[in-house]
Known about the structure:
- The chain is mostly beta strands.
- Helices cover 0% and strands 35% of the residues.
- The protein has no helices and 21 strands.
- The chain has strands at residues 4-5, 8-9, 12-16, 29-32, 38-42, 51-54, 61-64, 67-70, 75-78, 87-89, 96-97, 108-111, 117-118, 131-134, 141-144, 147-150, 155-158, 166-168, 175-176, 188-190, 197-198.
- The strands form 7 sheets. It has a 5-stranded mixed beta sheet, with no helix packed on it. A 5-stranded mixed beta sheet has the order 15-16-17-19-21, with no helix packed on it.
- It starts with a strand and ends with a strand.
Amino acid sequence: IPREYGGNVIDTVNMALYNYQNDYSAISYIYIPETIKSITCYTNGLYNLQEYIVDKNSKYFKSVDGVLYDADGYQLIIYPYGKKDESYDVIDGCIGVDALFDNSHLKEINLPSSLTSISEMSFVNAFNLEKINVDSGNRIYKSVDGVVITKDGKYLVKLPRGKTGDYTIPNTVTTLISGSIKFPSLTTLTIPTSVTKIYESA
């Protein structure tokens, strides 16, 4: 990403790179200069994109092991499409995950005790994600059989897209929130009688 274009400083990026439209297979990293204050980036199909590199003088973003966070490390913004790790630990101190996790390699994600927010679309494009673990010290969420539910057991938050076989929602769950069971790979999903509300776009 350039610092300027046509003599104008670039501070906002709204970028969509789709491999079926153009051949972006040679892209292995995306560099973010210190001028960028806001970034939205969709990179579906950039199979070799391994990392985001952030200028050391940036006040708005940082890269940790190639993954893009805000400068304070509070928000995980983008996970590289082509990063080949099968397991990933979200950094301690992160409080929110907004990333789609466009990635076919990830099988397991570990969320820290600091996390307080998982967006509706988080992990929705982690096609082979089988398990989401939550640190036992987290006060908002917990993981039961690799599925994220609220600490009180009442809300199902996120069923990993790559989880296969048969799955029965725990009988403590009363609500399936938006994005909780989106695009499952399950053979059978059993919903107990305890569930009384299913949000739109669950």
